Amino acid sequence: MRPASSPTAGPGDGLPVNVLGLSPQQLEDWVVGLGEKPFRGRQLLKWLHQQRATRFAVMSNLAKTFRARLDQEACIGVPTILKDHTSADGTRKWLIDAGQGNAVETVFIPEDDRGTLCVSSQAGCTVACPFCSTGQQGFARNLSTAEIIGQLHLANRLLEDGRGASDQNRPATPAPVSNVVLMGMGEPLLNYDAVVPALKLMLHDDAYGLSRRRVTVSTSGVVPMIDRLSHDCPVALAVSLHAPTDALRDTLVPLNRKYPLRELMAACRRYLQSAPRDFITFEYVMLRGVNDSHAHAMQLVDLVTQSGVDCKFNLIPFNPFPNSGYQRSEYRVICGFADRLTDAGFITTIRKTRGEDIDAACGQLAGDIQDRTQITQRIAIQKKVQTGGASV
Q1: Between vectors from CA 116 to CA 7 and to CA 254, what angle results, nearest 5°?
Q2: Annotated catalytic, 233?
Q3: Rounded to whole angstroms, how far apart are CA atoms 104 and 218?
């Protein structure tokens, strides 16, 4: 089987078709174009995603002649692993080749009652939040649907291989990944056209069959795309809030300058009309002396109360990375902040830090990005200005 010439290789471009990223309808149309019956597309879909096949040869209910044709016309472009790390707490992180010197990271977090996969959607990120390691690396490109869904395909397969599974018996046991969060590298809603088809494959009964409640998109607040998602593929929504006022959020989440809190809260309220859960999760990274005071907590309460958004809060202890310039809030401060939100009637959790020893914790994913936006240079200049080391 030949590898894909491009992660986005598809019908009509002259390259082997990477069938991993095709939707059910695209698969059906493609096999019909090869002279096969439409139901062959559904069979192929199940082999690819339910049984995580990586070779057409194992697809035993397909005719040998069809399998030979598939080998000529198509490929199953599963992502290539560059590094594989396992944390002392069982968290597993894969560094995945994204081509042209770029690499992204995917993290699996095992729990007693679930297995959560944190998926990347971009090689880098243009939002450039200063407390996020990914944002400090710049941006190379969007990932394709095949590269996004390929992370789920890869994780399930590798985790099942540890159980001694084979292509033939993979459907016999539940997949290791029960929950998916698009909280890895990148802003998912700025790669909308690739992310939504990947979400639909995650939800499709003949693919991964995940519940909408078990798939979460995390966004820094791309308002127009939040509205589109509510119509196209409503899944659980998490919003990276991190500040209770526009003045502070303009600094911590630069996208706020384009979509301020008033617009973001209104979009969240609209999203709840079609969301699979009856609340929005607001993520809030705890930065010592920056956004963790009693006054900040009260401003946060006022913000969501006045906006009328049903929500819960997930407080995230800041996970340090080199030269970030930020520190983690003391645990007693985080607990006090949580108590104020709880006392105001909001469900509030403090995220348990997982995989910190392998830099797999929230905000630490960095990969290897060939920045084409010069974000890294601009950040360096800004830091010099702030410290008096340069002027502009």
Answers
A1: 70
A2: no
A3: 17
> Angle, to 10 degrees, between the axis of helix 331-343 and the axis of helix 294-307?
30
Q: At what angle do helices 294-307 and 261-271 cross, to 10 degrees?
A: 50
User: What letter would DSSP give residue 227?
Assistant: H
Residue 125 is among the residues annotated as catalytic for this protein: no
Give the residue carrying structure tokens 């069938």. Answer: 19
CA distance linking residue 227 with residue 239, whole number of Å: 13
What's 81-386's CATH class?
alpha beta
Question: What region, left, alpha or beta, does residue 72 occupy, with left being phi > 0 and alpha being psi -120 to 50 degrees?
Answer: alpha
pLDDT mean for each 10 residues of the chain (392 residues)? 49 77 97 95 96 95 95 95 90 92 92 94 92 85 97 95 57 80 96 98 97 97 98 98 98 97 98 95 97 98 97 94 89 97 97 64 54 55 46 32
Measured CA to CA, the distance from residue 260 to residue 23 in angstroms comes to 35
State phi, psi for 117 to the nearest 5 degrees: -110, 125
Q: Give the whole-angstrom CA distance, residue 44 versus residue 47.
A: 5
E-strand stretches of the chain: 17-18, 74-75, 81-86, 92-99, 102-110, 115-118, 122-124, 139-142, 179-182, 215-219, 236-240, 280-286, 311-317, 348-350
Domain boundaries, the chain: 17-75, 81-386
Three-state secondary-structure class, residue 35? coil
C-alpha–C-alpha distance, residues 137 and 118, integer Å: 19
Q: Which of 131, 126, 129 is nearest to 324 (CA)?
A: 131
CA–CA gap between residue 12 and residue 10 (Å, rounded): 6
Check 125, 129, 132, 362 and give the catalytic one. 362
CB atoms within 10 A of CB 376: 16
CA distance 130 to 248: 12
| C-alpha distances out from residue 155 to 78, 117, 160, 291, Å | 10, 8, 8, 35
Q: Which of 28, 105, 147, 187 is catalytic?
A: 105
pTM of the model: 0.88
Cα gap 153→387, rounded to integer Å: 46
Does the domain spanning 17-75 belong to CATH 1.20.1250.20?
Answer: no
Measured distance CA(294)–CA(282) in Å, rounded = 18
